[in-house]
UniProtKB/TrEMBL annotation:
Residues 18-133 form the NYN domain. It comes from Brassica carinata (Ethiopian mustard). GO terms for cellular component: peroxisome. Pfam families: NYN (PF01936). One of its GO terms (molecular function) is RNA nuclease activity. One of its GO terms (biological process) is regulation of gene expression. It comes from the Eukaryota. This is NYN domain-containing protein.
Length: 149
């Protein structure tokens, strides 16, 4: 499903905070700086009707990108540390959810959500009525393509 076929942010979701959790090892930035990629992420969300704050956290090998100047919190992990990286992402999503009441939007940018995040996503959708966006690595948010679930 492309972004053009996705409905805009409904009701209070349009002004609520969006939390973006991005595995930069599984979803690398092709030919863009970190600033350009994050600007495009924010722009894509804005074009879909989101007017609230967007906070981005990245997880992975930070040596290739300048995330601090892009306003992104970075947690450094090597590409081999997938379990540790996803554990930290999971913990941060839980912490973010505790600090952000519904309605809120959570964006996951990673290769495989089934293994590590499926249960958490289902629980937050059911109990907190969060809106979720899963970004496929082959159709990244900075390329204006997202999947809502």
């Amino acid at each position: 499903m492309s972004a053009s076929s996705v409905t805009a942010f409904p009701g209070n979701y349009s002004t609520a905070e969006a939390g973006v959790f991005w595995d930069i090892n599984q979803c690398e930035i092709p030919d863009l700086s970190a600033a350009e990629a994050t600007q495009n992420m924010r722009h894509t969300l804005f074009n879909k009707g989101h007017r609230g704050t967007v906070k981005i956290k990245a997880y992975g090998d930070k040596k290739y990108y300048d995330f601090l100047s892009a306003g992104v919190d970075i947690n450094h992990f090597t590409s081999e540390e997938i379990y540790e990286r996803h554990t930290k992402m999971f913990e941060d999503v839980v912490s973010w959810a505790a600090e952000n009441p519904e309605p809120s939007t959570l964006v996951l940018i990673l290769g495989d959500t089934e293994v590590d995040f499926h249960g958490l996503v289902e629980r937050l959708k059911r109990e907190r009525k969060y809106r979720f966006i899963y970004v496929e690595p082959s159709r990244p948010l900075w390329a204006d393509a997202v999947i809502y679930f």
